[in-house]
Design brief:
single chain; alpha/beta; TIM Barrel; about 45% helix
């Protein structure tokens, strides 16, 4: 499947049982909710997916199961976050074998690679696969920025097609558009800057709180795309306290707790993460319950 880099693509959480095994039943419940809301793709094994704790066979199971669940209706992407070029190429080959439609890729993990090393890493992986690639540019959390000059070199690879823009500098959307036009598609990756980024020309949104609130997330995207900006802003303003749960070191626990309260997830996380407790849990619960109590009625947002 070719990928249209647009719309809402959930960075889905990985569901675990209390025995710390993949909970594929609850995972299917959540994926169905995403599809029913009208999402445009699924991203597996990202930060929210607890990628660093997943074993290889679990990533492959998530990919094959998601491909079965979506039945070709939307593209399925798996994140590559590896320490070596060899490992990243192997992961890309496995993703292709497992039916993934594309890849999201972080720079090399742990080693603080220089610009030339990062560019070569991405180029080597891109040359090894036919799958389209979205570069995940998140220097805040992962300490390496993919600069415009680096993208100039990377875009010589036809299958490097998009960026998950998570620099938290909203003017970067305009810089990318000014430099590359539509050659590099922009998927905003920061929930609290999502609508602003879309209005400045981002093509879509790799979202986090969508895991618990899929309809509201897709409604914001579709309404702004249709020029119904005031309606999109009203929903976004309601959503912002919840979206702020995404820009937090415990975003996984926060969003999984929200999923519990919307009926499409569990709190189970993989150690060393632990579920929220004490005052921290009560604070997040207050935000979630307040949001649910004032949850807006959505206009008909599909097929606008």
């Amino acid at each position: 499947m070719s990928i249209e880099w647009k719309g809402v693509m959930p960075a889905v959480t990985t569901k675990f049982t209390k025995k710390d095994e993949l909970d594929l039943d609850m995972f299917a419940v959540n994926i169905k909710a995403q599809l029913d809301a009208g999402v445009h793709g699924i991203v597996l094994g990202g930060t929210l997916g607890e990628a660093s704790t997943l074993e290889d066979h679990e990533k492959r199971t998530l990919t094959t199961e998601t491909v079965k669940l979506v039945k070709g209706s939307v593209p399925v992407m798996i994140n590559i976050a590896e320490q070596s070029t060899k490992g990243a190429i192997a992961a890309a080959h496995k993703a292709e074998e497992d039916g993934a439609s594309g890849l999201m890729m972080l720079p090399p993990m742990r080693y603080n690679a220089g610009d030339a090393e990062v560019v070569t890493y991405f180029q080597d992986v891109a040359s090894s696969t036919s799958l389209p690639i979205m570069i995940y540019n998140n220097p805040i959390d992962y300490k390496i920025e993919v600069t415009l000059n680096m993208f100039e070199s990377l875009l010589k690879q036809d299958n490097i097609q998009a960026v998950k823009e998570s620099t938290r500098d909203i003017s970067n959307v305009t810089r990318i558009k000014n430099n590359f036009g539509d050659r590099l598609k922009i998927m905003t990756g920061v929930d609290t800057l999502a609508l602003e980024s879309l209005l400045m020309g981002a093509d879509g949104w790799v979202a986090g709180l969508v895991c618990a609130f899929p309809a509201e997330t897709v409604a914001i995207y579709e309404l702004q795309k249709a020029g119904r900006i005031k309606e999109a802003i009203e929903i976004y303003r309601w959503f912002l306290p919840l979206l702020e749960l995404d820009i937090n070191p415990k975003l996984v626990q926060n969003i999984k707790l929200a999923e519990v309260h919307t009926g499409i997830g569990t709190e189970n996380v993989r150690k060393p993460r632990l579920p929220l407790s004490g005052d921290e849990r009560e604070h997040v619960l207050q935000i979630i319950k307040s949001g649910l109590a004032s949850r807006p009625s959505l206009p008909a947002y599909k097929n606008l």
